[in-house]
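Mods, move this if it's the wrong board.
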Amino acid sequence: MRYRTAHLLTAVACAALLGYAYYLEYVKYLDPCPLCMVQRLVFYVLGALFLVSGLHSAGRGGRVVYGASQVAFGGLGIATAA
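Not the wrong board. Structure tokens:
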């Protein structure tokens, strides 16, 4: 799978997860806990990073910067959940 396609699909997955979270909140009337709110913020940032990196035709250096920032925010989400 190509780099840009994989990143765009990952951005769509982040949007789907956020959409499901809002569905549970506003349709099923479930109140989000503080952990859920932090995880939503992480998914917003990750989705934006994946979207930008998928749309931007970056070279090798840009891919390293995008990848490092995506790993950092993914690690933040993992650390928060742990």
